[in-house]
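Table S4 entry, Winged helix DNA-binding protein.
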Amino acid sequence: MSHSKLGPVVSSAHLAAGSFPEVSEFEFGLIIAGHAFGRWTVRAMAAAGCPELSSLDVLVLHTVRHRDRPKKLADICLVLNVEDTHTVNYAIKKLSKLGLVSEGRLGKEKTVEATGEGRAACDRYREIREELLLSAMKDAGIEPDQMSRLSAMLRLMSGQYDQAARAATAY
């Protein structure tokens, strides 16, 4: 059967019945990709020796490690596009208790940076990612320029969703 007879692959046909059904197809892709990415981050970090971390914990650790400079809570939330600072603060506390990050101060602001143990965990994660994920993507024929275009589209769409969320709040 052709795609046109089946329609787009979606999780909610009632939403795809609107004026732009391809957006429902995109949203279904986001749903399954988001969950797959979350599973990947948790399992890859477990393979790297940190089985107690949630997906958000892993993302916070990598963000804190970025460029090996101390980060402020607000900056971590901004980079990860997390509105609820409490969840990120909880992740920082957990990572700190595990010895993966240390907390400090820059003037009046609290900062966080990766410890040697945290940097080593990120390095092991990177090695596992290279071996298990990136090599499989290359073998599947995914081209770097395709990935860059997809990434740009995802950033654009996140802006659309953020703007629509602001409009819905004022609705």
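The mean pLDDT is 94.
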